[in-house]
Structures are given as C-alpha cells and as structure tokens.
C-alpha cells in the first residue's frame, strides 16, 4: 500500500512538473536569467553591479521576443541576442542594431542592405550606437556598451527587409 501511494505521489509530481515547464516556455519574456538579479524592467535585468543585462531571442519567422527595453543613461549594458531558429545566417540572419536618435529606419535599412560584405552593417556609419554581429540559427552574440543620454532610440535587425518586423524601442531614462 505504501508503495502504491508513493507511486501515485511521484506520478502527480511528474505531471505538475510537466505543466510548470510548459508555462515557462510559453512566457517568452521570462528567458532572462542572471544570478544576482535585483530589479527588472521592460526585459532588462539589473544585476548587483548595476549593469543592465538583456537577453533577447530571435527566430526563423523574423521575430524578436520583445519590442521594448529600458535602461538608464550611462549604465553599462550587456545585450545578448540568441537565434533560436535553425536557418543559416545567409538566409535568416539576425542582429540587433541600436540607432542614434533621429535616424530614419528606411534610409538606414537601405544602406545596411547594400553592405552585404560587412554583415549588413554600413562601414564607418555614425548612425549606430551599438550592434551585435549577424548570427544564424543556434548561434548567439553579445555586445557591451554604455547607454547614451536619455531618450527613445530605435533598434532593428539590419538583415535585408527584416526591419519591417524586427524593430523596437531602446528607452534610456
Ligand atoms: Cu533579422
């Protein structure tokens, strides 16, 4: 009897664990995991050193997992982009490019599209605050930079035509 009871308990534990996992995966904004997390706002986790840690994902259907991130002026930012898809970077490459204030997205995207040999980053461009390298399915890339002055900045993926869907706001308070 005791044995049967134990089996039932472990079975129900298994079931509830399975459910829990499913819920976690569906909440794609919960992917950030930094050991000493203090506060979290708009997909940004501030660690014990005051650094803004951002983990962003992108996939095979041209989507970032969020469209907004908020940091503080002068804050150190560590931004990691993960490509959770399977497609090669020549077909479904993604990056994150944070643009200076006032840069027109379509104009920048045209310049980027012409810069194929430089992973779609216009060489010597003064329009860029920071960018990750271009990655394909299964890869990830990290960029570290200091947040600029307060304001609302655009971020995009500069792979040709992706910016129409892959864009968002980088908010500096
Ligand atoms: Cu892309």
Plain-language structure description:
The chain has about 170 residues and is of the alpha+beta class. It folds into two domains: about 1-30; about 30-170, Cupredoxins -  blue copper proteins (Immunoglobulin-like, Sandwich). It has helices spanning about 1-25, 90, 105-115, and strands spanning about 35-40, 45, 50-60, 70, 75-85, 95-100, 130, 140-145, 150-155, 165-170. The strands form two sheets. A five-stranded mixed beta sheet has the order 1-2-3-5-8, with no helix packed on it. Residues about 1-25 have low confidence and may be disordered. The structure holds copper (II) ion.
Q: List segments where confidence is low: pLDDT < 50 over at least 5 consecutive residues.
A: 1-27
Question: For the largest beta sheet, what order do the strands appear in spatially?
Answer: 1-2-3-5-8
Shape descriptor reads globular
Question: Mean pLDDT, as a whole number?
Answer: 86
Order of helices and strands: HEEEEEHEHEEEE
Q: Would you tell me which CATH topology of the largest domain applies?
A: Immunoglobulin-like
Number of helices: 3
Counting helices, strands and paired strands, the structural category is: alpha+beta
Q: Tell me about the largest β-sheet.
A: 5 strands, mixed
């Amino acid at each position: 009897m005791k044995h049967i009871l134990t089996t039932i308990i472990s079975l129900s534990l298994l079931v509830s664990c399975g459910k829990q996992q499913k819920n976690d995966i569906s909440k794609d904004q919960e992917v950030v995991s930094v050991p000493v997390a203090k506060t979290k706002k708009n997909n940004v986790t501030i660690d014990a050193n005051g650094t803004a840690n951002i983990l962003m994902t992108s996939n095979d259907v041209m989507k970032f997992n969020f469209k907004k991130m908020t940091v503080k002026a002068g804050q150190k930012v560590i931004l990691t982009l993960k490509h959770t898809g399977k497609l090669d970077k020549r077909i479904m490459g993604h990056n994150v490019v944070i643009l200076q204030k006032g840069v027109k997205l379509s104009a920048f995207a045209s310049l980027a599209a012409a810069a194929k040999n430089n992973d779609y980053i216009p060489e010597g461009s003064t329009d860029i605050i920071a960018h990750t390298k271009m990655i394909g399915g299964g890869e990830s890339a990290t960029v570290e930079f200091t947040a600029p002055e307060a304001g609302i900045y655009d971020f995009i993926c500069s792979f040709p035509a992706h910016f129409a869907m892959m864009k968002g706001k980088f908010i500096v308070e």
